[in-house]
Design brief:
This protein has 425 residues and is an alpha+beta fold. Helices cover 32% and strands 24% of the residues. The protein has 2 domains: 18-146, Rossmann fold, CATH 3.40.50.2300; 195-424, PPM-type phosphatase domain (Phosphatase 2c, domain 1), CATH 3.60.40.10. β12 and β13 form a beta hairpin.
């Protein structure tokens, strides 16, 4: 059951708990949806998409977000992915509406995955009733986690009559369930690690190093470093949105779906990073995965003879290039989240590596220990991280691991941490 609050319909940031925030650049909420929220007596506000960063600061006042992405361009689609990630980190469910369809009752197209995080280009339309199911589920989960809907399951008088023996029995049963679940998660974590490379490829002129720290028993990150032929090595990090078991399951799917070469007649051909990203994105989009269906990735292809590194990214933190005697450089290139828009494009770039260069890939869980955005929106590195850059890559990642254990950060900011380092000898 949903509480019946006072109706609110304005364009100001919420000052009290608001059931539905409708983000749109159209300036209004469609008639069908406005009628729905009014009929269900939900509080709501209509805000421009640009207000998202400010909204995140008030996430405790938001029940669910409906994001109207119907008329956004390709560049703005990348921003949508970042918005989804930001609200997901605050446990706010996001319903993304992708395009309008001309049907009497069906006013939007929404991925039919019964998930709070759903977005695709080619999906069946859903009715207003289906949309209400999405909203009500998000609100129920949100209000329960926020303590807004905390009602006792039994009356106080009946609760007092519960015997101490019964309570002890329930506590013992709960303890057994927790122990069993913990053991299952531990085993799942071991299975997931079996999908990671057991050793790095043999390279005469290159040194590899990796770091892998799940936030829980299982991780939403996965990586690989593999020799593809005599001259090429491919390596990547994938970071599923969220963490825990749902994200871990997605990483296993991505591991199997990521293709680095294809057969052409009697021969095979290596795929360029842009092709790897595009194929993986189409595969994820077409599967219409439930729950945590989005992921970021950075894929690199190294020519070990020419030292050319070609790379592409999908919503992932930029790779870092550490060159002796020069400032640390981010290899910037655009690319939206995987599994969001089936037709998304993923350009690639090539950099010529030199002896002494280091390439560092990392998941966003490592960012609180690397640096942050300053007031001018430029990325500033922490001094204790910069102190590690001049070290050999194996020593650097070992000391970074020690840094993550030593440095104090907000426990709510701690996420899965994965790094892959390459050094040209």
């Amino acid at each position: 059951m949903i509480d019946i609050p006072l109706l609110v319909n304005n364009t100001a940031l919420p000052k009290n708990f608001t059931d539905v925030i409708y983000l749109t650049d159209q300036g209004h909420m469609p008639t069908e949806i406005r009628q729905l929220v009014r009929q269900k007596r939900l509080s709501y506000s209509v805000l421009p998409i640009a207000k998202s960063p400010e909204l995140r600061q008030r996430s405790h006042l938001i029940g669910t977000v409906i994001l109207d992405a119907a008329d956004l361009g390709t560049f703005e689609h990348q921003e949508v992915g970042r918005i989804i990630q930001a609200f997901e980190q605050e446990s706010v469910g996001v319903i993304v509406l992708t395009h309008r369809v001309k049907k009497p009752v069906r006013s939007f197209s929404l991925s039919p995955t019964k998930s709070s995080f759903s977005m695709a280009d080619s999906v069946e339309s859903v009715s207003i009733d289906d949309l209400w199911v999405q909203i009500s589920v998000n609100l129920a989960c949100r209000k329960k986690s926020s303590g807004i809907m905390s009602r006792p399951m039994v009356s106080a008088s009946k609760l007092q009559r519960t015997g101490t023996n019964k309570l002890a029995e329930q506590l013992q049963m709960t303890s057994s369930l927790v122990e069993n679940l913990t053991e299952q998660l531990r085993l799942a974590g071991l299975v997931q690690r079996d999908f990671l490379p057991s050793k790095m490829p043999d390279c005469e002129n290159y040194t590899w190093a990796t770091t892998f720290f799940p936030a829980e028993w299982v991780s939403g990150d996965i990586y690989d470093v593999a020799r593809l032929d005599e001259r090429h090595i491919g390596f990547y990090i994938v970071d599923a949105v969220g963490h825990g078991m749902p994200a871990a399951l997605l990483t296993i799917f991505v591991k199997q779906a990521l293709t680095t070469q294809i057969s052409e007649g009697d021969d095979s051909r290596l795929l360029q990073p842009s092709e790897v990203m595009s194929r993986l994105n189409v595969r994820m989009s077409q599967e219409k995965l439930s729950g945590y269906q989005f992921a970021t990735c950075c894929y690199c292809l190294l020519n070990t003879e020419t030292r050319e590194l070609t790379y592409a990214r999908a919503g992932h933190p930029y790779p870092l290039l550490a060159r002796p005697g020069r400032p640390l450089q981010q290899l910037e290139i655009r690319g939206s989240l995987l599994g969001v828009f089936e037709q998304a494009e993923y350009p690639e770039q090539t950099v010529q590596l030199e002896p002494g260069d280091k390439i560092i890939l990392y998941s966003d869980g490592a960012e609180p220990f690397i640096g942050n955005l300053d007031d001018s929106q430029a990325f500033t590195y922490y001094e204790d991280f910069l102190a590690l850059i001049e070290q050999p890559v194996v020593e650097m990642l070992d000391n970074f691991a020690a840094l993550t254990k030593r440095k104090k950060i907000d426990p709510g900011s701690f996420d899965d941490i994965t790094m892959v380092g390459l050094e040209v000898r």
